[in-house]
Design brief:
The protein folds into 3 domains: 104 residues, no CATH class; 137 residues, no CATH class; 185 residues, no CATH class. 53% of the residues lie in helices and 11% in strands. It contains 14 helices and 12 strands. The protein has a 5-stranded mixed sheet, with helices on one face. It has a 5-stranded mixed sheet with strand order 2-3-5-4-6, sandwiched between helices.
Length: 435
């Protein structure tokens, strides 16, 4: 729940920045503002925490050096942790009933939207399959007997759907402008962006801001298509009259959210802009550079922050936990289980279960057990359960680095098994006390 709330306020803040940018670019083309609102919608699908975590995968530093040679023999230059080791939280609390209720409510709302989305898509697909080519029109324009608005259907191989009853009511210049508008939707891939927004609304249906973003997307999308129609040289009056004729025809026509239709957006504002035919200003090199820089900063900022912060966090946690475990109380007992090695931690304890001595050394030095050389078969003949109890809380126990056990393992092997780990022929650790 905390992660969801963080994501929502971050997305809201990002949306506010997009709104300010859209205001600053209100004199420019609607296509630019539409892209900004698409970015605001996509932000809901990509939490900053995901970018932060992705950056952590490429952190700039590691908390400790690579694993050294053991038992006097060299190992791989790039050691890899044993695949048998799993890191998990030892204690998990059952989900509260409130969270279960909220999850069920979310699922019910999302399911309702998905069902309506699927029904609209199927209705549009059924009409498209029954449509026929329009005589004298481009190949992607079809005529249908269905009572619908002029619209674009499908994301892949999109087509323009024109109701047959409307064709006789439009003058050739009006029809050409209406078709140009719908084909502009195809060129801009507006149906793809519409489905993307629908996905956002499905996942975050409970958050009013996503629906507001959807309205902004539709308004800017339609205005961008209107601007393209006028740029192609179509007459403003004929285009506006064509839209009004479509309005009269489509007063009771079916409108589907699975299509980009001719009557979407604020019609009165659209007709006003069409008749005024005020040419939008070019974006200009300065604004284009600023937008490009802002886009890169939004994506790269969390990545870089994740890389820096994760390296620092892991290093601090490693140092703290190594110090705490150096003073921990160690319990060892043999076990007869044949299961795989299990490594886990909670607030005050680290445990290693079903571990041979070879696996224990490999886990502590972040290498494969096969790279642990020296000794004899007795390194694999017995399995142990080891617990290290600390009187002070461990740092970030659910992501505990197994390498913090190096000091524990060295002292344990020396005091209990009379075994030394050598690094380049020298003793890796000298025990000050035995337990």
């Amino acid at each position: 729940m905390s992660a969801l709330l963080d994501h929502l306020w971050q997305s809201t803040l990002f949306c506010g920045a997009i709104w300010l940018l859209a205001l600053a670019l209100r004199g420019n083309g609607a296509a630019v503002r539409h892209k900004l609102w698409v970015a605001a919608a996509v932000k809901f699908l990509v939490p900053f925490s995901a970018l932060f975590s992705a950056g952590a995968l490429f952190s700039f530093a590691t908390p400790v050096d690579a694993g050294p040679p053991m038992f006097g023999l060299h190992m791989d230059a790039a050691p890899v942790i044993s695949p048998a080791i799993s890191l998990r939280d030892a204690a998990r609390n059952p989900a509260p009933l409130l969270l279960i209720g909220l999850a069920l409510a979310w699922f019910a709302g999302a399911l309702l939207i998905v069902v309506r989305w699927a029904r609209a898509w199927w209705a549009a697909e059924t009409i498209t399959r029954a449509a026929r080519p329009a005589p004298g029109a481009p190949a992607d324009v079809r005529v249908t007997d269905a009572d619908i608005e002029p619209a674009v259907a499908r994301v892949i191989r999109p087509v323009v759907l024109l109701p047959a009853a409307l064709l006789a009511r439009l003058e050739p210049s009006q029809l050409a402008a209406v078709i140009a508008h719908e084909r502009a939707h195809i060129a801009r891939r507006d149906n793809l962006f519409s489905h993307l927004q629908r996905l956002v609304e499905t996942l975050f249906w409970f958050y009013p801001l996503v629906w507001w973003i959807g309205r902004r997307l539709v308004d800017e999308r339609e205005r961008a298509c209107d601007e393209r129609v006028l740029e192609e040289g179509h007459d403003e009056a004929a285009y506006a009259e064509g839209i009004l004729a479509v309005c009269r025809h489509s007063f009771s026509a079916t409108h589907s959210r699975a299509t980009a239709s001719a009557l979407s957006g604020d019609l009165s504002l659209r007709i006003k802009h069409i008749l005024l035919n005020a040419r939008p200003h070019a974006l200009g090199a300065l604004k284009a550079a600023a937008l490009s820089f802002a886009t890169i900063a939004v994506a790269a900022g969390p990545l870089a922050a994740g890389a820096v912060d994760d390296a620092a966090r892991r290093h601090a946690a490693y140092v703290t936990n190594s110090r705490l475990l150096d003073d921990a109380t160690i319990y060892v007992r043999p076990v007869r289980s044949a299961g795989s090695l299990d490594f886990g931690a909670d607030t005050h304890e680290v445990h290693v279960r079903n571990s041979t001595l070879r696996e224990l050394v490999a886990a502590a030095y972040d290498v494969k057990p096969i790279n642990v050389t020296g000794g004899g078969d007795w390194l694999d003949s017995m399995r142990y359960e080891i617990r290290a109890e600390s009187t002070t809380s461990l740092s970030d126990p659910d992501k505990l680095d197994p390498r913090v056990l190096r000091g524990v393992v060295n002292k344990l092997l020396e005091s209990r098994f009379d075994l030394l780990i050598l690094v380049n022929g020298r003793e890796a650790f000298s025990a000050n006390a035995s337990r």
